[in-house]
Specification:
Blueprint (H helix, E strand, L loop, with lengths): L34 H19 L1 H6 L4 E2 L4 H19 L5 E2 L8 E2 L7 H6 L1 H7 L1 H24 L6 H12 L2 H8 L3 H4 L3 H15 L4 H16 L3 H25 L1 H35 L30 E2 L2 E2 H11 L15 H13 L4 H16 L29 H27 L15 H27 L8 E2 L4 H4 L10 E4 L10 H7 L5 E2 L16 H11 L10 H13 L4 E5 L13 H12 L4 E2 L3 E4 L13 H8 L11 H7 L11
Parallel strand pairs: 7-8, 7-9
Antiparallel strand pairs: 1-6, 2-3, 4-5, 9-11, 10-11
Amino acid sequence: MTGVASDASIPAGAIPDSERPPHVEAASYGPGWGTAGRYLTAGGLYLLASFGLWWHVWSAGPSSVMTCDCTDAGRMVWYLQWSSFAVSQGHQLLYSNWLFHPVGVNLLNDTSAPAISLMLVPITRLFGPVTAMNVASTLIPALTAFSMFWLLQRWVRWAPAAFVGGLAYGFAALVIVQIAFGWLNLACLALLPLVVACLDELFIRQRARPLRVGAALAVLMTVEFFVSLEMVLVVTVSGAVAAVLLVGYAALRHPGQLRRRAPYAVSGAVTALALGSVLLAHPVWFFLAGPAHLSGMVWSSNHPGDLGNTLSNLWSGVGRWGPVDSRQLAAEAANLGGYPGPALPSPSYLGPGLLAVLVMGTALWRSDRRLWFFGALGVITAVLSLRVGGGAWGPWAAVDHLQLLDNVVQSRFDAVFVLCAAVMLAVIVDRSRTGATRWIGRDRSHGVPMHRSSGRSVRVAVGSLVAVVVALVALVPSALALGPNLPLTVQPVTVPRWFETVGEHLTTGQVLATYPFATANSQSPIPWQAIGGMHFRMAGGGGPAGTTARAGAHKTAFQVLDDASVPIIPAPLLSPSNLVAVRAALRAWGVTMAVVPDDTGLAPFQTGRGTSYGVALFTSVLGSAPTRQDGAWVWHHVSTAPPPRAVSPAELAACTKSGARPVVGSSPVASCILHPGPRSTGSAS
């Protein structure tokens, strides 16, 4: 199985001399580039680039700004706080009923990334979950790039080539776009190069003991499970494809090598499978059958295969997520929340420059089987990533109906084909330098080495310059596509005053229903609970559990509250049947307080249809007026409130015109709802 390793990874004689990459004479890393120096320099530069990427965070203060304390980023803030809270208070790490009370939420069924949140517990406890979120967002690109740099040391001789490959992976659109949206679980890819190194050791190098390699692979995949279960599935499928490519090639070209190497590979693979099964037995059970687990498709609102790539995602600056493109997401961000900067490319974006370099480099060094292997794996995984919903068809359609695989967003295969592209780029840059140096050092008429008078240092310098030009051709178009978003756009973190004062001193056992109500489409209240320190539980929540399909017997109530909180869809009718359904749901959810904060000073995505509408909604549901308390309208005795008060659309419109500002501690909106009189046909001012 010798198809992909460099000659440094393969025993002598395994590859003909004609197929071996030529050596660069003398030092391949440059003067002073010892092992420690290489890693310190590369790591420092990656970290510096990450700080530049997040300059607006670190210049404004990491506890006061982030891309958005909303949607998935806001929910990730909650996950970070939950891990810190669970560790300090002795709660279960993977289950919580602080959301979706009393049933709770199974965090393995969500994008909770407990491996990341556990690592950040000290930061969260000392500085809060927003700071922890920004620390993670800053470290992830640098760590991912550094991990790839480490991997590439085994395949290239020139350290800057490995550095370019690490840069191409850790700071690709793949990482930057996903981290901008707060998807730490998908952006954190630092473990994937380590997994590749284990597979390289099992199938190619075979220097370490196979049991150790298998154990290391099992541990890495176990940790990745607690970062992203979806990525475990993607890596497993991709690893199977890679094994087929390697074994197939070896069976055709090197059957003797295959027979000799197979026992080592099988021993390591069996060790990885056996140990991984032990380590993941309970977590997999918890995911499939643990408390508050989700049955069927985790994201019940998704159609299998609908969120795959289009081919244009690979080179177009306008990213598409299935039927939605990045311009639509950017336009909706103001009202619904999301990344506030200009439209981003797809995470799968490679750019025309990189694609051109990969094609031309493979053609030029077509004898290098590393390029053919990673090129083939990259093409196959790119094809697997294609959208198969909405009338499109692709290979993934053959398996997208199977359990677990129906949950894979197949565009996530970009983690593999972008890795392949980064490896190929590093090899091509390395070979460009070597090839140019050797070419300059030959007599053009006879093809023999020139005299020393030509100057070795000059030849190496010119070769290095050629390699730098190749790297720039590959990377500059990607940098230009991301350029409008560099540094990444951030906005202030805002929490209603009531949650910072009263909310942080509530007694144990309080369960809140907020407006906006927390659902998958309206997640802004979720970080209010987390930033405040988890002093109360909440009805509702976000993520895959926060959809109407998951609301069980209270679907009607959940839909009413969801529609009421999302301003871009029609408002629900506050009819007797709908109000009774909401009232019954609040009782079943154990709600003790309802809170509508003032919308003054909040971002539009945090206010739903506005404070006046929220007051009207809960006044109708609870049949009583709220009290004024530190910047919010509060109903304290939800379980003993009077019967609901239904209102017509005309009454609702008239009453909400009066506003929600206090008049001697009372709400004119609530008074209008409870005592409409002539106000129902005219102004309620």
